[in-house]
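Researcher: Go.
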Amino acid sequence: MAATIDYPAGLPAPLRSGYGVNHISPLIRTELETGRARQRRRYTSVPSLASVSWLMSQAQAQLFEAWFKWTLSDGAEWFNCRLRTPLGLQDYECRFAEMYSGPDLVGVDRWRFSADLEIRERQALPYDYTLLPDYVLQQSIIDRALNREWPEA
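Model: Structure:
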């Protein structure tokens, strides 16, 4: 079920600087008296956290803060946002993990906002791809070969 709210089209994408995606651990670990540990999967579906920041003009900053307050109910609502992960640039269902930082004045007239976005589902290829690792590891070669050799319709 995708969120019905979209990140505003007129606002910039997150900056590369400081950008990163971290996964919440799905494991539970129990330390034993012997010094060993027992570990098992607690959840099959866990979120990821994307650390993002934006650099915005004054008008963009005004829209961002209004959108956050009124449309997202101060960040409580889920929204669709285009983010880059190892799977590529895709739309993900996100929400703010907490209040954003900023606006911080940068240079003469730019405003920086920073936040951690919770991505609803951890990003990974479907299970079937683990059965054919060469197709994943050699995907750029396969893509070039198909595009060059595939007959045009």
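Model: The CA atoms of residues 11 and 60 lie 6 Å apart.
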